[in-house]
Specification:
The structure is a single chain. The protein has about 650 residues and is of the alpha/beta class. It has 22 helices and 29 strands. Strands 12-11-8-6-7-14-15-23 form an eight-stranded mixed β-sheet, sandwiched between helices. The chain has a seven-stranded mixed β-sheet with strand order 5-4-17-16-18-19-20, with helices on both faces. Helix 7 packs across helix 8. It is globular. It starts with a helix and ends with a helix. The chain binds adenosine-5'-triphosphate and magnesium ion. Adenosine-5'-triphosphate (ATP) binds next to strand 24 and strand 25. GO terms for molecular function: acetate-CoA ligase activity; AMP binding; ATP binding; propionate-CoA ligase activity.
């Protein structure tokens, strides 16, 4: 079904953007020198500019990745084979023979050179109460926790579930697992007890780490209580380590271990385990936007290298910069760009505990000023929300520290992109719309790195990262679309070190989902348009494409025009006009910007659209509502506000 939906889908999506092609975000080219930018390039003969380096990275993949892996990671013993991959079996192996420890790469080696450098800035819920943790302190926390986990019986190869908000002990818990050779399974601390129990059971964890309570947006959340409910249905769990985020005591059972108290009894030295490159580092469940979440498995060396390299070059991160990724550590964005990428690079990374509107909609920008954030990385859903509150909330604060602005998670519509660029970045910071997935481990398509003069087009991810070779495939006949100005299934045609290795306990689902739809390619599930210039633009998930009068419309396309979904359902910024007047305006806007046939038959205003906990619109649920298949809404465990679905259903029944 997915395939036929996409047949012949050639979309006029970028026409409105093309007209407004901005030649923005130029950097001075005077000092540009490929070797000062990526030192390994010295070894790559004939490479003198970005496009040469990109070509080298995909054509001479072994040489490229071999050199950067030797240069950027600290190995306990060297690898003998750069890659050993076979997409037909879903076999992905990198740096075989090599041994290393991820926590040593993220901590010890920086402690040797700059022990007092700040590793983490814990931006707590109340503004102005941030806590800074140096590399030396983070190593100590990690070692004590590693020793405690060992004392509690956690062994190499076990999987520890972490249910914590962003905080230093959460990062230390992840790194402690890595230090002793256990895998971690971080579950977003906003999930219900059932969703948590599902993930604990799937991972077969005997140990859970949590906090007594969380604090977010001025509200206290009883996280330990959620864990108590979850573990009732998880026979594998033998112990729950409880850290104290607030001073309130919570009921403790025989199974519970007071984390701070016990870890303070431990030694500050914990011998790192020599791990094979392909041992498991963590599992992480996807957002569940398209169906049942998948427990993707990432391994040690390749994942770490890929996150470090993308963090350095996509965001143009330099030593001593303060990197502000406001995602939650429970998502892949948090794993790769709060924890592993920045720490592997010896960077200073922000752990954001609050919300974009607490105590007011100026929170992000007040924080940027106070912490001197240089790179800010957020989600379109938050940008769209803040845009509604107006420019003043941004302009009240000094944002001169900002150098790069990033976006991730969903397509960023043009209005939000331009606001981000013009208002937040004062028109001077490159905006990098980064496309990637839990499966890809790190950013795969983004406007940077590139030649320093290269343009950035609003709302486009644009350019593949080093080593990434994207391909568009015709969804009907499965052939590669080689010309530009075409749209198809976004695939990647060769392996890269950051990609997921399997779905936990379901290798067959892994091969079926990612490698069988287009043999020889990794299939992303997303659709993309490649412009005349060769730039990529994500047009939405292939499942979300709508067939109207024989024409295929991507939801991103419609949303870019009206910021809503067909049968158009949307929520309003503010109630300013009558709904029927607005409906007429929308119809005119769609027919003008796309085509008459794209005009919606029904327009429904809703309080809020159903979204995942990570802020993505659950379009598959809207589709079921429209098809009147409300008995088959599918897995709703990752839904943020369950009432939103019932309201949409009721509203829709009234409409039709
Ligand atoms: P599930 O796989 O369970 O349905 P999910 O795909 O939402 O959940 P993630 O891995 O967190 O889980 O999200 C990756 C997806 O998010 C991508 O496949 C893509 O659809 C979307 N996405 C991420 N970044 C971008 C971006 N910059 N532009 C457009 N879409 C993006
Ligand atoms: Mg997905």
């Amino acid at each position: 079904m997915m395939c036929s939906l996409w047949r012949g889908f050639s979309l006029p999506l970028t026409t409105s953007l093309n007209r407004r092609f901005l030649k923005c975000c130029r950097q001075l080219s005077r000092s540009y020198n490929i070797e000062s930018c990526i030192p390994e390039a010295v070894a790559f003969q004939g490479v003198s500019d970005h496009s040469g380096l990109y070509k080298f990275s995909v054509n001479e993949s072994d040489r490229f990745w071999g050199a950067v892996a030797r240069q950027r990671l600290s190995w306990i013993s060297p690898f003998h084979t750069v890659q050993n991959c076979d997409f037909s079996q879903g076999k992905i192996k990198w740096f075989e023979g090599g041994k290393l420890n991820v926590s040593v790469n993220c901590l010890d080696r920086h402690v040797h050179t700059s022990p007092e450098r700040v590793a983490l800035i814990w931006e707590r819920d109340e503004p102005g109460t941030e806590v800074k943790i140096t590399y030396r302190q983070l190593l100590e926390l990690t070692c004590r926790l590693g020793n405690l986990l060992k004392r509690q019986g956690v062994r190499r190869g076990d999987c520890v579930t972490i249910y914590m908000p962003p905080c230093p002990l959460a990062v230390a818990s992840m790194l402690a697992c890595a230090r002793i050779g256990a895998a971690h399974n971080v579950v977003f601390a906003g999930f219900s007890s059932e969703a948590l129990a599902d993930r604990i059971r799937d991972a077969q964890s005997s140990t859970v780490i949590t906090v007594n309570q969380g604090v977010r947006g001025g509200k206290v959340v009883d996280l330990k209580r959620t864990v108590d409910q979850a573990v009732q249905n998880c026979p594998s769990v033998q112990q729950v380590l409880v850290a104290m985020r607030t001073e309130n005591t919570v009921a403790m059972t025989d199974r519970d271990v007071p984390l701070e108290e016990e870890m303070m009894k431990e030694d500050v030295v914990c011998e790192p385990v020599a791990m094979d490159s392909e041992d498991v580092l963590f599992l992480l469940y996807t957002s569940g936007s398209t169906g049942k979440p998948k427990g993707l498995v990432h391994t040690q060396a390749g994942y770490l290298l890929y996150t470090a390299l993308t963090h350095r070059y996509v965001f143009n991160y330099h030593d001593r910069d303060v990197f502000g990724c406001v995602a939650d550590i429970g998502w892949i964005t948090g794993h790769s760009y709060i924890v592993y990428g920045p720490l592997c690079n010896g960077g200073t990374t922000v752990l954001f505990e609050s919300t974009p509107v607490y105590p007011n909609p100026g929170r992000y920008w007040e924080m940027v000023e106070r912490l001197g954030i240089n790179q800010f990385y957020g989600a379109p859903t938050a940008i769209r929300l803040l845009l509604k509150y107006g420019d003043e909330w941004v302009q009240n604060y000094n944002r001169s520290s900002l150098k790069t602005l990033g976006s991730v998670g969903e397509p960023i519509n043009t209005e939000a992109w331009e606001w981000y660029h013009r208002v937040v970045g004062d028109g001077r910071c490159p905006v990098v719309d980064t496309w990637w997935q839990t499966e890809t481990g790190g950013i795969c398509i983004a406007p940077r790195p590139s030649d320093p003069e290269a343009e950035i087009v609003p709302g486009m991810a644009m350019r593949p990262f080093y080593g990434i070779k994207p391909a568009l495939l015709d969804t009907e006949v499965g052939e590669v679309l080689s010309s530009n100005d075409s749209t198809g299934a976004l695939c990647i045609s060769q392996a890269w070190p950051g990609m997921a290795r399997t779905i936990h306990n379901h290798h067959q689902r892994f091969t079926e989902t990612y490698f069988q739809p287009y043999p020889g390619y990794f299939f992303t599930g997303d659709g993309a348009y490649r412009s005349k210039e060769g730039y990529y633009q994500i047009v939405g998930r292939l499942d979300d494409v709508i067939n109207v009068s024989g024409h295929r419309l991507g939801t991103a396309e419609l949303e870019d025009v009206v910021v809503c979904t067909i049968i158009i359902m949307f929520s309003l910024k503010a109630v300013m006009v009558q709904e029927d007047v607005l409906a007429q305006q929308l119809r005119e806007m769609v027919s003008r910007s796309i085509a008459k046939y794209a005009c919606p038959d029904f327009i429904q205003v809703v309080r809020c659209l159903p979204k995942t906990r990570s802020g993505k619109i659950m379009r598959r649920v809207l589709r079921k509502v429209v098809e009147r298949n409300t008995d088959e809404l599918g897995d709703l465990s990752t839904l943020d506000d369950p009432d939103s679905v019932h309201e949409v259903i009721r509203g829709h029944q009234r409409l039709r």
